[in-house]
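re: that chain from earlier
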Amino acid sequence: MSFSSKILDWYHENKRSLPWRKSTDPYKIWLSEIILQQTRVAQGTPYYLSFVENFPTVYDLASANEEQVLKLWQGLGYYSRARNLHAAAKMVVEQYNGKFPDNYKKLLTLKGVGDYTASAISSICFNEAQAVVDGNVYRVLSRYYGIDTPINSTEGIKYFKSLAQKVMDPANIRDYNQGIMEFGAIQCSPKKPLCLHCPLNDSCVALEKGLVDTLPVKLKKVKVRNRYFNYLIPIYKDADGNQFTSIHQRIGKGIWQNLWQFPLLESDDVLEIDDISIRYKEVLGDMKSNEVIAYNVNAIVHKLSHQHLHTKFWLVYINDDFANKIPVEEISDFPVPVLIADFIKAFKF
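^ sequence. v structure.
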């Protein structure tokens, strides 16, 4: 029995019941694939269901404002995916009259759609013989064939795509592509793969040569940058006991583009309360404070792909009214990074 036949047999017996598998609608498949990039199925599924509920069609998503999209995306990270999702929906509506392109090459024209996503949509929705290559597929192919070429090198990307095309089952491409990804997620997992009961264990090079724990090979990551964030939360209470704060939108091309945040003081190292008492005017301007309190004594380390954010939240109680204040009850309506969302949820104004 061939490699692809074993994958198909395994998939038909072991596939999970996932909401997007009940459809070949390219809109729903596209949504699921974008959401599941850099995201586990268990985490991504509620987001998928929420997007389908709030935006049942590509027209609904295209006509939404960006803040709505970012708010629904909140907590998934890699927010450029959400902005690209929104942009691609508009492209489908404006350039393709609301119908997704039905082939790999045209799908690549959509914002945020690369080789993997175009292959997945074209094969699952239109039965085009395009092999998918994601992290799961890299792992399965690398281990089974004993390939130590780095999967994130230019050579490796080309080699594994070519190999994937050679070993796929073009006649059953829809199930085969889903099958090999599922196989990598469940059977040939990154840690503690189920080699003893694997249908490929009689011909897997990595298992034979003791290379399961060393394959696939990846080039070393870019050096992580440490940054020090100090969020200053101004708190003002009026005569009626209503509380207000300040929040503004991030601009530029850095992390969390177009999300909202409290006034931010970025420093070269961890700051203490005496530093904040002196420097708070750098971001709060003419606001006059009668008390500054550290919400968290030790910095929270929020890890991104190439950055570690050492973050402190500071409560700055303000004496007088200030411009552009926002009632504290409304701040949960804004799309914010998960770091700030956790603070808003935990802190009781």
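The first helix runs from residue 3 to 14.
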